[in-house]
């Protein structure tokens, strides 16, 4: 798997925290890209964070990436986790 991040981009901090929970469960390469780099080939605008799975598929929602890492780590997600992810997405990452 490859995780693409950009310094100062919203959503990178929770993704890194979730990736830390999954440490050792899968090989993860972390790449820093510029804010204007288009990582996902089918998106017309740059978007980070992005997780490229070994299958070649992409996850580019902060919540989806966090949930993927939580599942990978074996951490049972509960309503509080989902509430935190939704709050973070709606309150901290407003466009």
UniProtKB/TrEMBL annotation:
<dbReference type="InterPro" id="IPR036249">
    <property type="entry name" value="Thioredoxin-like_sf"/>
</dbReference>
<feature type="domain" description="Methionine--tRNA ligase N-terminal">
    <location>
        <begin position="1"/>
        <end position="74"/>
    </location>
</feature>
<protein>
    <recommendedName>
        <fullName>Methionine--tRNA ligase N-terminal domain-containing protein</fullName>
    </recommendedName>
</protein>
<dbReference type="InterPro" id="IPR041598">
    <property type="entry name" value="MARS_N"/>
</dbReference>
<dbReference type="Pfam" id="PF18485">
    <property type="entry name" value="GST_N_5"/>
</dbReference>
């Amino acid at each position: 798997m490859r995780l693409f991040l950009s310094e100062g981009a919203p959503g990178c901090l929770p993704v890194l925290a979730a990736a830390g929970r999954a440490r050792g469960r899968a090989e993860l390469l972390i790449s820093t890209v510029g804010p204007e780099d288009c990582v996902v080939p089918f998106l017309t605008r740059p978007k980070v964070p992005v997780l490229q799975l070994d299958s070649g598929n992409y996850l580019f929602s902060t919540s989806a990436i966090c949930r993927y890492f939580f599942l990978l780590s074996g951490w049972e997600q509960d309503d509080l986790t989902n509430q935190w992810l939704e709050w973070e997405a709606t309150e901290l990452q407003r466009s």
